[in-house]
Amino acid sequence: MAEWTTTNALKTLRMVLNKAVLDGALPFNPAAASRLQSHSRPRQVNARQPVVLSAQKVDALVEAGVKKTPSFAGVIATAAYTGARIREVLAIRWCDIDQERKLIHLRG
What we know:
With about 110 residues, this protein is mainly alpha-helical.
């Protein structure tokens, strides 16, 4: 599993076990950070490098989106050409678009 996945699972486990300690079901939390040895704790380091698409690949992605899912073509094109995250693109409203200056204000 990825480090972030392991870390999130460990956080959830700690919360559940903390509740068990508070309820008196357990004498202590075996997953508490102070009880785990440092080598067994996940490191939150992402070893993967981001994928950077060339202009031609971005154009090909948008073209494929238009052909395959025409109803989402605008969302795909906006995300691909602006670099915005999908939630930012989905939060765009007409009032966020400045047509005179050719800008999109990302607020979401």
